[in-house]
Amino acid sequence: MARYNSISDWRAEGERRFGKDVKNWKFRCPMCGHIASVQDFIDAGAKDPANCAYVECLGRYTGKGTPRGQKDGRGCNWAAYGFFGIPNDDHDVVVNAQGVPIDVYSFAEVG
Ligand SMILES: [Zn+2]
Question: Does the predicted model carry a pTM greater than 0.85?
Answer without folding.
Answer: yes
